[in-house]
Request: fold
Amino acid sequence: MARKKLQYEYVLDLGTYEMRLLHAEGVAPGEVHLKKLIQSEAPKEFVVSTFIENPIMDAEMIKKRLRDLVDGIKDRNSEVIALLPDHAAIINLLLAPPKFSSREVENAVREDMAPIMPLPIDQWHIIHQTMGVWEEDEITIAMAIIKANLLEAGGLIQESGLSPQIIDLNFFNVANLIEYHLNSDENRGRNIALVHLGNETTSIGVFRDGQVRSFLNRPVGGYDFTKKISKHFHVPEAEADQFKRNEVFFLPEYAPEQDGLYNFTVIRETFSVMTREIFSALESYLTRFRETSIHEIVISGGGANFQNIQATLAANMNSQVRPVAGLYSLMENGTPLGDEARNSLAAACGAFFRE
Reply:
């Protein structure tokens, strides 16, 4: 399959769990080929917030970590797409008549978002894009990020030796990665949910015929599981993270024994909160768009690496659940990378598919 010509060869993924710099040599539907991947644990000083101006607590620590990543590729001043966690911005979906002018749409977006903004609206950078049509209305996705935070992130990236061209979020780049799947003939007319299980939040969106119809970001993520495990077993959070990776929390197939699994009892409360948020978002979509079912749920992000989590999620959601790792191959310098890497790197890999 022919590889897509890359507009940008570098993606910098600024997560609150890990920071990653990817250098790609080519991509094709369902395939990503990297020249190099550099990863590093994110400093605790890298705090991202939708509602706080200048949340980064110690810029020097962030600069040092970014310089280390750039030194790993030995290629300074390269143009890069930078990704921030989804909770770095407010994302809103708007239905509006297509007869609206561009000015009317812009005013409608600002009017719709202003009530949920804790700072005056002129302190926000707002962009919007029409994503498709439902019945007689256009579906518009709007994104707002505090201008000072955008400038701070861009400045830190520039000081590290890279040239940021685009600063974006995770969820819609995972959608870019699996666009071929969302648009496939076999999925025509089906409702496919994408659930990005991030470190601090979970993003839930539903697509039909490749078009996004709903989006919601909720404040529960992988770090909440880590804190539960750390507190229960009286171990440092780094050790709790390893425990999440190596121990069994979910059975390969959902069964009554799942509820009695000791490790599961430790995280049950957090898992219940997460599943309620996902279920609520999906139910809201079904009600709003008068649909009857979610045909498939694709999970991505670090949270998708909980071994067998898809089985228990499927039982709770009454729908097929599959990790995004099964939808694409990922190579680094000719060597295939495993499921864990493909789940965690889905957003960063999807950024290479941007038009």
Summary: The longest strand covers residues 18-28.
